[in-house]
Design goal:
The complex is a heterodimer. By secondary structure, chain A is α/β, with parallel strands linked by helices. Chain A has helices at 55-63, 102-107, 120-130, 146-159, 176-193, 204-210, 241-254, 257-266, and strands spanning 15-26, 29-40, 44-48, 70-75, 78-79, 87-90, 164-168, 196-201, 213-218, 223-229. In chain A, the strands form 2 sheets. Chain A has a 6-stranded mixed sheet, with helices on both faces. A 4-stranded antiparallel sheet of chain A has the order 2-1-4-5, covered by helices on one side. By secondary structure, chain B is mainly α. Chain B has a two-stranded antiparallel ribbon. In chain B, α3 packs across α4, α3 runs parallel beside α6 (150-174) and α7 (178-186) packs antiparallel against α8. The chains are: A alpha/beta, B mainly alpha. At the A-B interface, β6 of A face α7 and α8 of B.
Chain lengths: 267, 279
């Protein structure tokens, strides 16, 4: 499905997403203030920052769900105007269709506008296997645990084979053990699909576990503080020296917790 | 899977025990009511003021041992049925069309207004003004426009059904979460119509159906009101019997209405439950 476009002249050949001077304000807060960075094709990019730093706003803008006030967001060199099947999204609160079964949820995108896959049922089975939900195909979302719901959310987004996967604190509401397992599974899936992933979180450990590169954001106004590449091999041990160092570095960039909470109080 | 089944069984068992107690209490309440009713009946003079339970049961049985002829609207032919069923049928001749038409129009407008912001802006003040008018107040127009017969009564039922269903549908569509519409648009839903069909309608369906179920009950109240003004049916028979001081017969018709409503309500709940396994 992935079509490789000839690279345009004004960008680096492998640049998948390019965010250029994006700003957006909500009434009194500057959610995003002149944010620029780019994500190369196939990269797992995590965006971390305190709540209110506009990371979710940024992700929604990349998805085409929200407009920005100024600046531009380019995907494959084309400005983002509206949501599209080549940018899949996984939501924090799952956003599953409660009236559809696991199978029905996963299938949703395949039926829009019309099935392109030769055998949609087989595709759904493949995805159910991929996220480990065998036996639950006919269950409704209310019957599933949080971790299982998010597996459905991921499978649903993957179904249409998007080139970019946007994830908005997807594991924020699952317990720690399930989260660890989901991290490993997500990295497996990513290794298979070779998608470009933008993963938003406020959990530094999570970012260092997953990312090729971490974009650290600051709140009010929402700006990019710094970008840190994570060089360690996966899977990464949380107790490893290197890991702890990365976490400490990012925490430094974010400023002390006191700074953050003071800033939030000001808002 | 097996743990799930056991869990369900345990829950069922617990509920079963609680149920028995509840049924016994409910039965006790009924008995107590019958006793109070009976005492009230034997101590009140003149006796027609409070017809006793036994007398009422006898009157109820009579509704099914005698027969009456009614005219079938539109077709024009005569139909002979046991008296109770005959008058119930007369009521249904205006209740059913009024309810279905009212529900159809109410749901239609509710969905459109809930989904279309511009239409909502246009009509909201109008709805605010018209909504509080009790359906029975329209009886005067029912009389001058249609005459107080089946059509007039159906019109009043229509008004009642319309508003209840309108609010069910309107609230249902307005309450569709933006998370779900966002998810759908990232999955390729582009046109407004597809969004309505694929997300808004299924999401609003339970509320629409709850609105409809509420209107089933409310319309029984309205229909009896309309019949007290002279449209044929069970409501008319209540007042007709009381004009002849046959109060036990009035009570019998009251219970007939209660039974008819219960049957419809239970039937509809079963339909609802099977349709919304996902809730």
């Amino acid at each position: 499905m992935a079509m490789s476009k000839p690279p345009a002249a004004d960008r680096e050949p492998e640049e998948k997403i390019s965010i250029r001077g994006v700003s957006k304000a909500y009434e009194s807060t500057n959610a995003l203030d002149d944010v620029s960075f780019s994500v190369p094709e196939g990269e797992f990019c995590c965006v971390v920052g305190p709540s209110g730093c506009g990371k979710t706003t940024l992700l929604r803008a990349i998805a085409g769900l929200d407009d920005v006030d100024s600046g531009s967001i380019l995907v494959d060199g084309d400005p983002v105007a509206e949501p599209s099947l080549d940018r899949g999204m996984v939501f924090q609160e799952y956003a599953l269709f409660p009236w559809r079964t696991v199978r029905g949820n996963i299938r949703f995108g395949l039926d829009r506008p019309a099935c392109e896959c030769a055998d949609c049922e087989a595709r759904v089975r493949e995805l159910v296997d991929l996220v480990g939900l065998e036996g639950f195909e006919d269950a409704y979302p209310k019957e599933l645990s949080g971790g299982m719901k998010q597996r459905v959310g991921i499978a649903r987004a993957l179904a249409v084979d998007p080139e970019i996967l946007l994830m908005d604190e997807p594991f924020g509401s699952v317990d720690a053990r399930t989260r660890d397992r989901l991290h490993a599974e997500l990295l497996d899936i990513w290794a298979q699909t070779e998608q470009t992933v933008v993963f938003v979180t406020h959990d530094i450990d999570e970012a260092v576990t997953l990312a090729d590169r971490v974009v650290v954001m600051d709140a009010d106004p929402g700006t990019v503080q710094s970008t840190i590449s994570i060089g360690s091999e996966r899977p990464r041990e949380r107790t490893a020296h290197e890991f702890v160092d990365y976490v400490a570095r990012i925490r430094d960039e974010l400023g002390s917790p006191v700074d953050i909470s003071q800033k939030q109080r000001h808002r | 899977m097996s743990t799930r089944t056991t869990g369900t069984k345990l829950v069922t068992a617990a509920v079963g025990g609680g149920d028995r107690k509840r049924y016994l209490r409910g039965f006790g309440g009924l008995l107590a009511f019958l006793l109070v009713w009976w005492i009230g009946a034997v101590t009140t003079q003149p006796s027609y003021l409070v017809p006793g339970p036994l007398e009422s049961v006898r009157a109820f049985v009579t509704l099914f041992t005698t027969s009456a002829a009614i005219a079938v609207p539109l077709v024009g032919s005569e139909l002979v049925l046991p008296t109770g069923l005959a008058h119930l049928a007369e009521t249904l001749f205006h209740y059913v069309p009024g309810l279905l038409l009212g529900a159809g129009c109410g749901i239609g407008l509710g969905l459109t207004m809930g989904w279309n912001g511009a239409l909502d802006d246009w009509l909201r003040p109008l709805v605010r003004v018209l909504r509080p008018i009790p359906p029975l107040a329209w009886v005067v127009f029912a009389i001058v426009w249609f005459g107080i017969h089946h059509t007039g009564a159906a019109f009043i039922v229509f008004v009642g059904a319309f508003w209840i269903n309108f609010y069910g549908a309107y609230g249902g569509v307005e309450g569709v979460s933006t998370e779900l519409t966002d998810a759908a648009s990232t999955l390729g839903v582009e046109r407004d119509r597809s969004m309505l069909k694929l997300v808004a309608l299924p999401s609003a369906a339970p509320q629409v159906l709850t609105g409809f179920r509420t209107s089933i009950g409310r319309c029984w109240m309205i229909v009896v009101g309309a019949e007290l003004f002279g449209a044929p049916g069970v409501g008319y028979e209540i007042i007709n019997a009381s004009n002849n001081l046959a109060m036990a017969t009035s009570v019998a018709y009251m219970f007939l209405i209660s039974l008819a409503f219960l049957c419809m309500d239970v039937g509809f709940r079963l339909v609802e439950r099977s349709m919304f396994a996902w809730r």
